[in-house]
Amino acid sequence: MPTWPDVRADFPILHQRVHGHPLVYLDSGATAQKPRAVIAALVRYYEQDNSNVHRGLHALSMRATDAYEAARARVAQFLHAAEPAEVVFTRGTTDSLNLVARGLAADLRPGDVILTTEMEHHSNLVPWQQAAQASGATLRYVPVLGANAEGGLDLAALDQLLTPQVKVFAFTHLSNTLGLLNPAADLCRRARAVGAVTVVDAAQSVGHGPLDVQALGCDFLAFSGHKMCGPTGIGVLYGRRARLDRLPPDATGGGMVASVDYEGARWKPAPERFEAGTPPIAGAIGLAAACDYLDALGREAIARHDQDLAQLAYERLAPLPGIRLLGPATGRRGLVCFAFADVHAHDVVTFADEDGLALRGGHHCNQPLMRKLGLASTTRASFYVYNTAAEIDVLVASLQRTLKFFRG
Ligand code: C6P
Q1: Which fold has domain 40-295?
Q2: How far is the CA of 121 from the centre of ligand 1 (A)?
Q3: Interval between CA 111 and ligand 1 midpoint (Å)
Q4: pLDDT tens for residues 75-130?
Q5: Most buried one in 2, 94, 265, 292, CB count within 10 A?
Q6: Contact 228/236 with Cβ under 8 angstroms?
Q7: Is residue 98 within 6 Å of ligand 1 at its C-beta?
């Protein structure tokens, strides 16, 4: 493994023992741990500036408003958005995807097609099923290739599927079970050629490498703060200005209206139009601190570290008897999903927990993909900036212990 700065001291939670063993946290795909800098930003905000935003005329409210809007500008810079107004704060990826799916559904008609893929997380699948039901549009899926989905998306099939009837193409940037990064810029370019609106689910990718929404050429992009060292309860819907301006508001109420009378209301422009009620102020401030933290480490370097760990894990796990590994053998991003025919994933995770390991077991909100691959559940190890090669040794040893117990 190439050298990588030891950042573990930045993460207070990692320095504990679980069931008598040092904690080995390999579940960052579910949620990432928080560095001191993010925790400190939250404490500072609550201790010094806490107030509501965009409403008060007193000092605290103005400071909170400035900090909230500065966070929007920081996130816009992190994404290389054209302007801060393209950043809508939401509760998370799921919230962002529901917002955009409901908004786009208003423009869909029977005969229109929503295209997505077979590898989507439920959060980028169910909202489109709902949008199809509400509008009469047809939902189609780009297939995945290979018995273990190691071939990624079937790009030849995509050519057939991307007809002028496709009005929306929604796809994941980085699969949370396969560990593969889709060629998002190319997918957006192909979708644009038929006039489709593109929606990218960047939940797993945004904190794990460089991401430039203008270079991707996407119309919308969704992610959560908590998977990139930020707090829970904060997410982002990025929308290209021209697209956001055409999207109807989702939730209505205070904060998003320009004026109201007893007959009706007029909306503020984006992004406020999509932020009804008191927004997640502390979350946005914590997210901006997470952007600072990740940029200071270097996002190219984070991507390399993730890839090195995932590759090492794949190579160390592959020789285990009877293991089935999902996704590509090389070029994978920071996670590995695997299954044993004779040991249930929940048993694997429970045994690993006894050894101090945090893994994830189940369908990972990918039920249709699991079913297609003939699997009920898998175990996942996912990596981030604080993980080390030595922790992969602990993982392998724990799996060997589990297999020995079940196989004798
Ligand atoms: N995946 C995982 O362990 P929320 O829950 O809204 O922050 O993110 C939803 C989501 C959407 N898309 C992808 C690709 C995701 O991976 C996730 C969250 C977690 O894989 C929890 S199921």
Answers
A1: Aspartate Aminotransferase; domain 2 (3.40.640)
A2: 7
A3: 30
A4: 999 999 999 999 999 999 999 999 999 999 999 999 999 999 999 999 999 999 99
A5: 94
A6: no
A7: no
